[in-house]
Amino acid sequence: MSTGGGGSLAIIVRSDNPESVYPALIIASTAATMGVKVEVFFTFWGLKVLVKGGIESVERKFREAIGGEPKGVPPLSMLIDMARKSGVEIYACSTTMQAMDLKEDALIEGCPIVGAATFVHKHVSGGSRILVF
Amino acid sequence: MCPYPIILLSFSIKNVNVGDVVEIKATDPAFERDVVSWASETGHEILELNKSNEEIVALIRRVR
Question: What is the interface pTM, i.e. ipTM, of the complex?
Answer without folding.
Answer: 0.85
